[in-house]
């Protein structure tokens, strides 16, 4: 998803706009870089303006309007950008890095008494593996070349030689721990981890990722490659190259090769490819922004994602701001989509069109687009007047069946919406397993009302794609069918009023209706109207009751049959509730 402004419209990058650089949203990676660049500015505690009018009277370090970011040249010139970049990386990724976990294990082994041998050995092996990696070894060599007296590698070798002597191991661990308490040591080791885990997937072969400079000082290498050229263009006005992103004239000859999976190597491409005029060079400010792209992505385990909703920088930041993640074992696709759901349901968010989601994994980038119709479905599930919406009601529901097969109901339902699949198989699965609560290997963490909520979601999905259908009418019909089922449930056990059933009455009704419900569910699942109606007719005539008129609607469309049929079954199962009393 590219910016609404074309690259030609953005040309050229302004360097004389009241002392500000101006950069504009463009492709997904550049947009992620802008989000990351703003995080670097925030790390510097740069003053933020609201708009161009405000900074006329009160100069600020940066501000953004629409798709444009303005950054003060004066601020950039005086700032230690390399330090800020490294600090931002550590702030975002440090706590979840392997090195951070390693030193938590070291602290644990030193302070904990009476650890079981199996646990102790497991953690020691993990510590050895982490601190013996090539990147950590080169980091230690860099620190030693600067005069720091650290013995991390020496102590790791000592641990390997004395793996059965716990007292000696703890002694060596304490020495490693003391080394790590040095600020420069901690920063270097964390960055060595972050560089290969979080930065290298986006760019490589420059600065500290240049293989020939892996033992050099991290900050200095970043300075020479990115910060120094950026500061040089504050005074420079001309050059023989045009930046491929912003069009600025520059003397910098950095091409896009360093951008992993998206850059083009002008040195290896034949000249005919470029019509003998290579034009994939980047100006220093765009290079710096691309270097910030990892900061714009959110990381979930070994995956990272970016939501490229680029109507404005404000929207882009809002979409990608780090939020609370309930379970980081979930895949990045799910977390990204769930983020979009929450934003789409936010009253403050304007009407959203299609949204591009980019997932970065070990194999490269994957791109997924959530369309306008899907977002309309999601929007229709928003709660109103303090009441929960459909998605929120099912958010904590799940089913576990034997052999540890877990079904997260919210996730499956959401994936069905996003992938244009109906909910019928999910409804069938939940109904067929509902009676097995308490059986060995089964955990039923949902109710029949959960299933009715999913039925409403299915009706809303259907409505979005068929504009001739009145959604509210369809939902009302499902309530009527559900109520008819509830009335039969009460008649079966001789309750003739609307009071809540006692637990023993609920069990009695379920026992008497189990066989009928099973037959009805299977007839609906196989779209067998005749079998369904045969069972309904036999039920009502045997009790000398009039068949409800709602069943005349099942012959119009197969979707109508399933909606009304499942709603009736759910009524038989006790899902009906009085809207006024329950407030739903």
SSE map:
Blueprint: H1 7-10, E1 20-24, H2 28-43, H3 52-57, E2 62-65, E3 68-72, H4 73-78, H5 81-93, H6 98-111, H7 117-131, H8 134-145, H9 152-161, H10 166-180, H11 183-199, H12 218-232, E4 241-242, E5 249-250, H13 284-291, H14 293-296, E6 298-300, E7 303-308, H15 313-320, H16 332-344, E8 355-361, E9 364-370, H17 372-380, H18 390-393, E10 398-401, E11 405-408, H19 409-418, H20 424-433, E12 443-445, H21 448-465, H22 471-492, H23 503-525, H24 529-542, H25 558-572, H26 579-582
Antiparallel strand pairs: 1-3, 2-3, 4-5, 6-7, 7-8, 8-9, 10-11, 10-12
Helix pairs in contact: 2-5, 2-13, 5-11, 5-12, 6-7, 6-10, 8-11, 9-10, 12-13, 17-21, 20-21, 21-22, 21-25, 22-25, 23-24, 23-25
Structural commentary:
It is a single chain. This protein has five domains: 7-78 and 203-293, no CATH class; 92-199, no CATH class; 297-370, no CATH class; 373-469, no CATH class; 471-584, no CATH class. 52% of the residues lie in helices and 9% in strands. The protein has 26 helices and twelve strands. It has helices at 7-10, 28-43, 52-57, 73-78, 81-93, 98-111, 117-131, 134-145, 152-161, 166-180, 183-199, 218-232, 284-291, 293-296, 313-320, 332-344, 372-380, 390-393, 409-418, 424-433, 448-465, 471-492, 503-525, 529-542, 558-572, 579-582, and strands at 20-24, 62-65, 68-72, 241-242, 249-250, 298-300, 303-308, 355-361, 364-370, 398-401, 405-408, 443-445. The strands form four sheets. Strands 6-7-8-9 form a four-stranded antiparallel β-sheet, with helices on both faces. Strands 1-3-2 form a three-stranded antiparallel β-sheet. Helix 2 (28-43) crosses helix 5, helix 9 packs antiparallel against helix 10 and helix 12 (218-232) runs antiparallel to helix 13. The chain is flat and about 95 Å long. Pfam families: Cas_CXXC_CXXC. This is CRISPR-associated protein CXXC-CXXC domain-containing protein.
């Amino acid at each position: 998803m590219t910016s609404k402004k074309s690259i030609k419209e953005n040309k050229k990058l302004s360097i004389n706009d009241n002392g500000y650089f101006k950069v504009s949203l463009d492709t997904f990676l550049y947009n992620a870089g802008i989000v990351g660049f703003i995080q670097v500015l925030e790390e510097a505690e740069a003053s933020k303006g609201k708009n161009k009018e405000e900074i006329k009277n009160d100069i600020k370090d940066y501000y953004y309007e629409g798709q444009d970011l303005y950054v003060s040249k004066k601020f950039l010139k005086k700032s230690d950008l390399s330090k800020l970049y490294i600090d931002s990386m550590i702030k975002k990724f440090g706590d979840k890095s392997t090195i951070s976990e390693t030193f938590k294990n070291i602290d644990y082994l030193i302070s904990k008494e009476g650890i079981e041998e199996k646990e102790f050995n497991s953690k020691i092996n993990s510590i050895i593996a982490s601190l013996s990696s090539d990147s950590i070894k080169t980091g230690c060599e860099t620190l030693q070349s600067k005069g720091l007296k650290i013995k991390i590698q020496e102590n790791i070798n000592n641990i390997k030689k004395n793996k059965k002597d716990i007292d000696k191991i703890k002694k060596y661990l304490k020495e490693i721990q003391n080394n790590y308490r040095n600020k420069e040591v901690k920063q270097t080791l964390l960055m060595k981890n972050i560089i290969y885990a979080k930065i290298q997937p986006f760019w490589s072969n420059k600065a500290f990722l240049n293989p020939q400079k892996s033992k050099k000082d991290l900050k200095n290498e970043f300075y020479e490659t990115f910060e120094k050229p950026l500061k040089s263009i504050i005074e420079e006005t001309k050059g023989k190259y045009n930046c491929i992103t912003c069009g600025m004239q520059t003397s910098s000859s950095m091409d896009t090769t360093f951008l992993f999976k998206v850059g083009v190597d002008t040195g290896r491409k034949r000249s005919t490819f470029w019509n003998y005029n290579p034009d994939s060079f980047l100006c220093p400010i765009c290079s710096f922004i691309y270097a910030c792209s990892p900061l714009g992505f959110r990381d979930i385990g070994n995956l990272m994602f970016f939501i490229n909703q680029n109507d404005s920088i404000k929207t882009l930041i809002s979409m990608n701001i780090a939020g609370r993640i309930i379970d980081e074992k979930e895949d990045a696709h799910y977390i990204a989509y769930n983020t979009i759901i929450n934003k789409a349901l936010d009253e403050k968010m304007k009407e959203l069109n299609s949204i591009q989601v980019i997932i970065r994994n070990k194999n490269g980038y994957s791109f997924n687009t959530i369309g306008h119709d899907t977002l309309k479905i999601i929007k229709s599930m928003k709660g109103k007047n303090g009441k929960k919406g459909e998605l929120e009601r099912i958010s904590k529901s799940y089913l576990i069946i034997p052999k540890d097969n877990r079904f997260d109901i919210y996730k499956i339902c959401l994936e069905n919406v996003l992938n244009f699949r109906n909910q019928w198989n999910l409804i069938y699965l939940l109904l067929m397993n509902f009676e097995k609560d308490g059986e060995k290997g089964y955990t039923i963490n949902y109710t029949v009302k959960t299933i009715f909520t999913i039925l409403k979601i299915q009706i809303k999905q259907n409505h979005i794609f068929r504009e001739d259908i009145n959604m509210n009418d369809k939902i009302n019909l499902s309530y009527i069918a559900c109520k008819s089922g509830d009335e039969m449930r009460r008649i079966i056990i001789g309750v003739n009023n609307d009071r809540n059933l006692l637990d023993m009455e609920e069990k009695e009704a379920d026992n008497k209706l189990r066989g009928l419900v099973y037959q009805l569910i299977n007839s609906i699942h196989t779209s067998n109207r005749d079998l369904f109606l045969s069972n309904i007719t036999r039920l009502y005539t045997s009790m000398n009751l009039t068949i409800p008129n709602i069943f005349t609607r099942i012959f119009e469309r197969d979707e109508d049959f399933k909606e009304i049929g499942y709603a009736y079954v759910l009524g038989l199962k006790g899902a009906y509730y009085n809207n006024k009393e329950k407030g739903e």
